[in-house]
């Protein structure tokens, strides 16, 4: 009971401090269609999913879970508590082979379970934080395989701005900057669309979300 | 000084502004058929925000020096955030920016509140100027170094150092002045903001020649002259709440209005350069904090120094 209370307090504190520090603003957020949803965003900071989750409409926050790297989030007790109790993350082993038939299938099924149970996921299709300085790295095939596993799911592309300056790799103290989240129209693989074609379309859709950014 | 707190000059100015806003609401309703819906909505949102701003100012100014200082510290924080967002700073500037936000900004306002005059005067222009490049250079990122370091320093100067001159007015002891120094801030903000609004009104009514078309597409020479002169007149009319003679009030009002115009132009030029329309979105209809503070930023230091020189 008190664990639940503590986690809820941490969620409220996160929403409050994140809103106050970053003056989060969402534009063109697509209304929820009732389909299982995967938010696919660019990834430069550990705080990316926190910003996206906080900026979601309140009614959607409870049903939205971040997909996070097991190696990082299982490393300390505090991180374990944060990712499991507070954010109800879905942890995956990174670097697992994502080819169907091999042990990658297990990862995909693990990710598909919440979607099939009516929850949404926050997913970073680059697979890891982008430290290259380029806009968006090549997308991994995980998201395509996940959509094969849950055919009625849709992908909502999203661009999160400035997070690499707000809380960069190795940074501990956040620098408050105005953080914008810009969304694009939901997409789904066309019938017969090949993996590379779909990933290229999603890649372009995420980049297109930046639009008017300075 | 034993005036009823609801009858201070600041309180009376607020009542007058509320009455004026009531008139503005009615005028906006009358104008509705003549305006296109988008600019009418914007006008309406601006007026709504003015209600909130006057209410917030009235309350804060009633609560005294500590709260006023804290309020401007918060304005600086929001302004610096808007400024830093549009700069070229990158990961290598993270430590310098974190220090600017979490150490230098609070220290500046602490110094202002505690009357540590030398520190309030020198910390940002001298010690922050030395410290921040030192921290940044240690990161070893040379690309855009001059730009990034200068932008951070400019952000601190404009958003923190200049803005902190407004609450610094509260440390003044003016002989034979019967009101609290808070009234001096009220007068400054009223005159400068009136100049902004009146430039807009005069510009809409008579504006023909553009003042600086590349920098600000809406500022006109007619608006500028009409706005500055009528705001100066307001400053003179309010002489009884100031320690000035009418002539001094007029000259001071004129000086802060002119500085206000330049402040607006300079911050517009930065926005155009960086390709943004508004600094932020926190004040509905107006944009960000810097969109509302732009004219105060450059007039506040001049105002403080004019006061220091005159008394």
H/E series of chain A, N to C? HEEHHEHHEHEHEHEH
Can you summarize the main beta sheet of chain A? 7 strands, mixed
Strand tally of chain B: 2
Number of individual domains of chain A: 1
Could you say which overall geometry of chain A the principal axes of the C-alpha atoms support?
globular
CATH architectural type of chain A: 3-Layer(aba) Sandwich
Textual characterization of the structure:
- The complex is a heterodimer of chains A (214) and B (311).
- Chain A contains nine helices and seven strands; from the N terminus they run H-E-E-H-H-E-H-H-E-H-E-H-E-H-E-H.
- Chain A has one domain (2-208): Glycerol-3-phosphate (1)-acyltransferase (3-Layer(aba) Sandwich), CATH 3.40.1130.
- In chain A, helix 1 crosses helix 2 (48-55) and helix 6 (104-116) crosses helix 7.
- Chain A is globular, with a radius of gyration of 16 Å.
- With 214 residues, chain A is α/β, with parallel strands linked by helices.
- Helices cover 40% and strands 15% of the residues of chain A.
- Chain B is mostly helical and 311 residues long.
- In chain B, 42% of the residues are buried.
- A two-stranded antiparallel sheet of chain B has the order 1-2.
- Chain B has helices spanning 9-31, 37-63, 65-85, 94-114, 117-137, 145-162, 165-168, 182-206, 221-237, 246-274, 289-310; strands at residues 210-212, 216-220.
- Helices cover 73% and strands 3% of the residues of chain B.
- In chain B, helix 3 runs antiparallel to helix 4, helix 4 (94-114) runs antiparallel to helix 5 (117-137) and helix 8 packs across helix 10.
- Chain B folds into three domains: 1-63; 66-171; 180-311, no CATH class.
- The interface between A and B is medium-sized, with 15 and 23 residues.
